[in-house]
Amino acid sequence: MTAKDLLPIALFAAVAALLPLFVTQNTWLNFAVFTLIICLAAQGWNILGGYGGQYSFGHAAFFGTAAYATAILQMRYGMNAYPAFAVGVAAASAVGAVIGFLSFRSGLRGSYFALVTLAFAEVFRVLANASEVTGGAAGILIKLDVRPANFQFDSRASFYWIALGLVTAALVVTRALERSRLGAQLVAVRENENAALALGVDALRVKLSAIALSAAITGAAGALYAQYFLYLDANIAYGTWISVEALLAPIIGGAGTVFGPVLGGVVLHGLSEFTKTLVGRIPGLDLVIFGVLLILVVRFPPREIPGLIRMWRARR
Amino acid sequence: MTAFSPSRRTVLLGAAAALAAPRIAGAQPAAVKLGILQPVTGALAQDGEYGRLGAELAINEINSTGGIRALGGARIEMVFGDARSNPEGGTAEVERMNSEGVVAVVGGFASPICLAASQAASRYDLPYVVDVGVADTIVTRGLRNTFRFGPGFGKVTSGALDNLVKINEAAGKPARTVVVVHEDGLFGSGMARLMQNELPKRGFEVLETISHPTPARDMSNVALRIRALNPDLIIPSSYYAEFVLLSQTLQQRRIRPKGIYCVLNGAASNFRFVREFPQAANLVMDVNHWADPRKPKTAELRRAVEAQNRFWLYNTPLNYSAVMLVADALERAGRADRAAVIDALGKTDGSFTRHIMPYGPTRFENGQNQAAQAVNTQVINNDIKVIFPEEFADARPVFPWPAN
């Protein structure tokens, strides 16, 4: 990895970090924080789905595990929020490794892998819904105690910078992966697993490393979500909504690229917010317009936004 | 009260005027902005619409009867937010309402939305009045800005058990054995566990607890099991579709216990159920939120709602009452200032009578109205009647069910 590799990331982080100095309205900061959380979850998906070609439909399993771990450790065991955050990320990563081991070892690929991950997430959702430790139906609440020592901040800007820091870190990790031996092997597995095996790539090990890393990043998004909204229930933590968000953003922004998930996340949520202000007060109409725009974006190949830009440039 | 009482006419006129001319510029005192938060898209859209309806009716009524007098007759301007049936949506809308300068927020409907939205509002010391959300945690977090006019889960369930004992005793203790039927998800399992623990203490024998998934397509096995157990009483905790299916199956198979007693049921206090399945709904009892049937205003509001071809659900009176509560606090605060409104809300007492809920004199403790309670309802002659507590009842319980 050279300085040239990191320059765009540094540029992005610097520009984005200045945002709260110009945008002081909390409405917008709240929107930005939520978008960054989704971007982070999507970056996790991108490692496994974008670079590894293993399309997961169940990243909620990692998002939810980290979120619940963070909340439960704080509320039931009195742990400080920062180590709880770290344990949450580690727990998500471990869950990723276990799910990966079970499904990759059985040779599940493509839609079979997608279905198995979906099933895992659903199982977690049902368990969390029924279990005592997660608060079951009533959900779990992190005590509101606004102090930086508790990972709770008075200003939304502080949260924004933390979320941005995590997104930037994930960008750096993705770039490092891209330039590393593991990254090259992962792409080889994506392009042709049998050929990669023939060349001596340990496909199982490569995929396991990818899913563990992927789960950790999406887990960080989950833990951050819990810390930001301070409330979880099974449908929030393990619901299909987050699995869909996590895979939609990279697919739109460009799967298997460093900035794809961030671009996709910002465009998706920007679009949804834009349509919301556009149509004003008729409930649901913005969702209709958003859906139509989404279909248009996905319909016209090359699908990803960078592809569209390239196409547009080539025409001129 | 006659059908054409002046106050009803004023309400309708006010509603018509508000619809016809939403923005009349004038030299009136500045309008007070009030945030109304409801999920009107997504899974909870129907509930959200009925909540919004209640808030609108209250705001129209306040505006057409002279506005907030203490503020020189200031009108209330609704700032509506769609919570999209999830907590993030609720939070985002509270942020927007805050930037638009609302003096308070009313609504939320579901507990997760109420929890997140009231927390977001607490950052700005923005008063938040919960309309429905029953989770006990909503008012036990120590948030100064959060108030709930209706009852919480603990109050509803303990009241449900006490009332069951009283109704049973008044009828000469016909019921002794119980079968609990519950959906195996969130609220059903919790309710079933509570029933299993508490009913034996009150002299009932729980023969069996039968769970079913949501959605369920067939209730025949559950019904057959109930027939075999032959309980005096069935206590179901299910959502709308499953409860409708269960009560229909019981009816088809001619299984008639001495009563069906629901707690916070999705169907039993819902006029859709009564209209669409009158026979299955007949005589089903429920413990739920319900408007005070003795207040003339309740009948008036119900007619206004039904005139729009809508059902009379509890969301409407709860939101109507919550908006009236804020209006009352504004009158007493004397200024559209958030801190003053929080202060006034906390000091609300029995002089607040513009609500239509069957509660005693209002008294807030840690943001929870101590007088709030659920009531027992029963479907009698295609209508939903209040049968208990007696001071609010407009019908006598039909229990045990007649034999035919």
Task: Write structural notes for this entry.
The complex is a heterodimer of chains A (316) and B (404). With 316 residues, chain A is mainly α. Chain A is 77% helix and 1% strand. Chain A has helices at 3-22, 26-51, 60-77, 81-105, 110-130, 156-179, 181-191, 193-198, 203-229, 234-238, 240-253, 260-279, 285-299, 305-315, and strands at 140-141, 231-232. In chain A, strands 1-2 form a two-stranded antiparallel sheet. Chain A is globular and about 55 Å long. The two termini of chain B are 37 Å apart. The model of chain B is unreliable at 1-6 and 17-26 (pLDDT under 50). Chain B has 13 helices and 14 strands. The chains are: A mainly alpha (316), B alpha/beta (404). Chain A binds chain B through residues 25-27, 30-31, 34, 129-130, 136-139, 141, 143-144, 154, 229-231, 233-234, 236, 241, 281, 283-284, 287, and chain B through 40-41, 45, 80, 82, 86-88, 91-92, 95-96, 98-99, 111-112, 115-116, 119-120, 122-123, 135, 137, 141-143, 184-187, 189-190. Chain A: It holds the Pfam family BPD_transp_2.
> Looking at the structure, what is the overall shape of chain B?
elongated
CATH class of the largest domain in chain B: Alpha Beta
Supply the CATH architecture of the largest domain in chain B: 3-Layer(aba) Sandwich
Beta-strand proportion of chain A:
under 5%
Number of domains of chain A: 1
User: Would you count the extended β strands of chain B for me?
Assistant: 14
Distance between the termini of chain A: 34 Å
Helix content of chain A: over 70%
The greatest interface here is: A-B, 27 and 33 residues
Largest sheet of chain A: 2 strands, antiparallel
The whole-angstrom Rg of chain A is: 19 Å
Averaged pLDDT of chain A: 90
Which series of helices and strands of chain B comes N to C? HEHEHEHEEHEHEHEHEHHEHHHEEEE
| Low-confidence spans of chain B | 1-6, 17-26
| Number of helical elements of chain A | 14
Q: Structural class of chain B, please?
A: alpha/beta
Computed CA radius of gyration of chain B, to the nearest angstrom: 22 Å
- In the CATH hierarchy, the third-tier topology of chain A is known as ABC transporter involved in vitamin B12 uptake, BtuC
Pfam families (chain A): BPD_transp_2
Keywords (chain A): Cell membrane, Membrane, Transmembrane, Transmembrane helix
Transmembrane segments (chain A): 7-23, 29-48, 55-75, 81-104, 158-177, 210-231, 251-271, 278-298
GO molecular function (chain A): branched-chain amino acid transmembrane transporter activity
